[in-house]
Inverse folding.
């Protein structure tokens, strides 16, 4: 089955700096890669996703890149703000089996 | 706005008790899931269901069962609670195909003493 590895497990950045979180997956049939953000005490919520027919997607300060050949995808947050502090989960989905999540990255943005 | 509601935010149960965690969604989604969230282990899939009365085992089904008698409701059952089942439990639902957004409930923090 699918296996998703996520790095780093914790990340601290200064406000205004960029943050990058990386994930790898094992199942070449996976074709949907969402990212979820979980703020402290709240439920995970989708912030951005990418499908295998595109290599990059942007939404304001966040972007996701996908390299299907290498089976890895990354989340990029620019101009980080304190409200970006949260746990971020990547996931992979082949459409035939449920989402498989990475173990999460705790991002701390230091003002 | 999709709503996924879990019946309890916090629960404390005794070892050996039978525990029911309820989840209801209001968007007529076919797919529903139960995840367990532990620090450093991420979200691990316990059971999922693609339709009423259907259920499939996830990655960590041991010690759990599920029930889906109605499309909007998916219940997680701990037949005989143990201390190693102390955790945060998250329900999620997803409509259409599987390549769509998952909507999560607010979570139930279960403590087994």
């Amino acid at each position: 089955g699918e296996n998703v590895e996520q790095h780093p497990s914790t990340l601290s950045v200064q406000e205004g700096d960029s943050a990058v979180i990386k994930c790898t997956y094992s199942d070449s049939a996976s074709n949907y890669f969402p990212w979820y953000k979980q703020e402290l005490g709240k439920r995970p919520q989708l912030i951005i996703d990418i499908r295998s027919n595109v290599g990059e997607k942007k939404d304001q300060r966040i972007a996701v890149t996908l390299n299907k050949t290498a089976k890895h995808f990354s989340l990029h947050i620019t101009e980080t703000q304190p409200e970006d502090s949260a746990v971020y989960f990547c996931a992979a989905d082949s459409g035939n089996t449920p989402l498989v999540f990475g173990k999460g990255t705790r991002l701390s943005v230091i003002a | 706005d999709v709503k996924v509601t879990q019946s309890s935010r916090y629960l404390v149960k005794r070892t050996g008790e039978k525990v029911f965690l309820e989840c209801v969604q209001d968007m007529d989604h076919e797919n529903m899931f139960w995840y367990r969230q532990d620090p450093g282990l991420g979200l691990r899939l316990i059971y999922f269901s693609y339709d009423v009365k259907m259920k499939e085992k996830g990655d960590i089904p041991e010690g759990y069962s599920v029930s889906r008698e109605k499309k909007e409701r998916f219940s997680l059952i701990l037949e005989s609670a143990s201390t190693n089942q102390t955790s945060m439990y998250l329900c999620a639902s997803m409509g259409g195909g599987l390549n769509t957004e998952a909507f999560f409930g607010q979570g139930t923090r279960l403590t087994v003493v």
Chain A touches chain B at residues 6, 9, 31-32, 34, 36, 42-46, 49, 51, 89, 93-104 (CB under 8 Å).
